[in-house]
């Protein structure tokens, strides 16, 4: 099988966009092979499809049917690049994206290396505290539930220097009680840092360099906790991502993330 692909770097959250049509029932299987170290290698993959809604330029169908802000920015950057924008010019790209109930609007500004992007994210369905068991201890942690992914927020102080190992252990032990795609977010509120671990059932468990939905989850959590709108920048392993949350009359009205995205490769993969 030969598959045309585009590889992008949204805050180093390496993403494959597959151009060759693939039946939906084979999306997960094919993507799992493509993102493997012995193939094209990436953190995640999505498929470019024709949209049902004529207002959208394209549809992005993620490998597990989840929503992904970084992948949305990636496809928007690919479409924006075809417009031949000059430095500093801006454009808006409208997409259909899996895991999103409405169309996704992406604003992009041409920079020397790629684009600076801003994308409207789906609002969380719930922000709630849940109890989890690990090593015989009950942990009460905040979960932020989106349509296609749920994130568990873990203060870095909880596990300290054992954070990486504990998060990987927790991801494996908690998978049975979580949806197919979920994340464990090691969050240092004082220093504004985020280290996201994302699990996709039967496909991958990856420390992402930059996580769009994780960034959204932190923004939503802080807005709900503080009862006000927030705008913050989070330092992640791959760089800085921003999140802007409008919180009005006790609820989140809008949520946007920002970050840099570039196209790093195009080609043909052989499976």
Query: What is the global morphology?
Result: globular
The residue fraction in helices comes out at: 10-25%
H/E topology pattern = EEHEEHEEEEEEHHEEEHEEE
By DSSP (H or I, 4+ residues per run), the number of helices equals 5
Would you tell me the overall average pLDDT?
Answer: 95
Q: Please describe the biggest sheet, giving its number of strands, its sense, and whether it closes into a barrel.
A: 8 strands, mixed, barrel
The low-pLDDT segments are none
Task: Record the strand order, biggest sheet.
Answer: 1-2-3-4-5-6-7-16
Q: Beta-strand level of the residues, as a percent range?
A: over 45%
For the termini, the CA-CA separation is: 5 Å
| Structural class by helix and strand composition | alpha+beta
Number of strands: 16
